[in-house]
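The instructor's notes for this session suggest beginning with a concrete chain rather than abstract definitions. Hand out the sequence below and ask the class to guess, before any prediction is shown, which regions might be ordered.
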Amino acid sequence: MWWDESLLVLFKRNLQPTLTYWSVFFSFGLCIAFLGPTLLDLRCQTHSSLQDITWVFFSQQFCLLVGSTLGGVLKKSLKLCLFILFISSLIISLVFVIIPFCQHVGLLALVMAVAGLAMGSIDTISNMQLVKIYQQDSAVFLQVLHFFVGFGALLSPLIVDPFLSDTNCIQSNNTQNKSMNLEHIRNTINPHHPGNVSHYVLPLDGPVLTNVSYAFWIMAAINLPVPIAVFLMMYKKGVVPGCGHRTGSLLSEDELAMETQKENEIIDSHVPETQPQEEHKEGKGYGVSWHCCQSKTFWNAPYTFFAIHVCSAAILFMSDGIVGEYSGFVYTYAVEEPLSLAHKTAGYLPSLFWASITLGRLISIPVSYKVPPRSMLFINLIGVVVTFLFLLLSQKSTAGLFIGTAFLGLFLSSVFPSMLAYTEDTLNYKGCATTVLVTAAGTGEMVLQILVGTVIQTQGSYSFLVCGVSLSILALTLYVALLVLDNMHPRLSEDSTCKTPELGRDADPYQQ
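After discussion, reveal the predicted structure:
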């Protein structure tokens, strides 16, 4: 087998929670990718303009960032985490059911804002819990987690495609016999740059002919097993009110991390199984969750501790921003000079990009077991820079654009899970970095689309690749700085991984 026996034992021991977190992340992917393809049909349903309906994107993305932060603040205990995951996954199914009944754009934006809060909570909590369960072995499991979000994001457009309107779904006397390339409009719409649709004028009044409601109800049914899986996990842990079944104790995150660390040490034969639990009560690191900012050791931490957080967050800001801006504007770049591709041909580029990301995450699952996150990140970021340079040099080649798009998706696919695993490894797997990294990645995806969209609008389509080269080189430079910080960051000695009586309860382990 491609992984060792100890990892298999650990996986079997945590089989139910691991599968549950993976399934919840599938819900996240399912919900994040349906809005773009269905936006024109939702515009008809709400009788709104293109400029108005694109703000639904903003409400979802902004509340996703808020949910990511709240997920980090509220993850005080495993019991609370499971409750939040159950409510969030259930909300996603309810959102799919409710969307067809939203007849006003404001109501639709409110529903998508609630969905964004649920998605953000799922993003932070699932990443954090897997890191805490598997610690130094978390990289491979994080790769699987992010494969599921890619799989969900790839599946939802396939579900909705048969139900999308082929003609203008609002029938009026002025447009009933007028042919319009709706596929071109769908690919041109960018969630964070509403100005790029201002020249399209579509009717607002008239009978609505759309079957997209069936797609939402199908996705609601597909997602329904996910909250059921979370509920079963809650029942097993004794969280469900009025149910006495309890096969394991509910631990706080500190205790969960301590117990997982002890199990890993037992499996790896680093310490005897009979080692007293008291020796682990003050494990290494600066605390967890929002308690990070309240512990004395947090404020006494070396400057490299804070610099690593900032540098890692900035890298994910750039990398996820590249994902957002490339998927959002590659179609617009392709249909304009010098390529001037046909609309149908250019429409394959975003799908190819997301398919490559999903394939890359699948490939990264076995690779991440053999290759450490530090090396994977270096290969990925170098690959992103080289791919953008290739795209820039072959800007007049259609084949070059398709090849470059595929390789760019492959190299970007595993940056986030690898960065999360590497940063938590450097900071001793206490979960403090997860909320920061998740929020930074989401912010980059939103902000860089706005910035790059503005540059393209003012400087022309050529600037699309120039922005990509600049952002990828900046991300690689920041990664080199992160490696320097990693080498400068003080490491706890083997003896200091457990608090000794001489150090005392409130002593700073870096001041020995």
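Then share the key points. The domain at 1-250 is CATH 1.20.1250.20 (Growth Hormone; Chain: A;). The chain has a mean pLDDT of 78.
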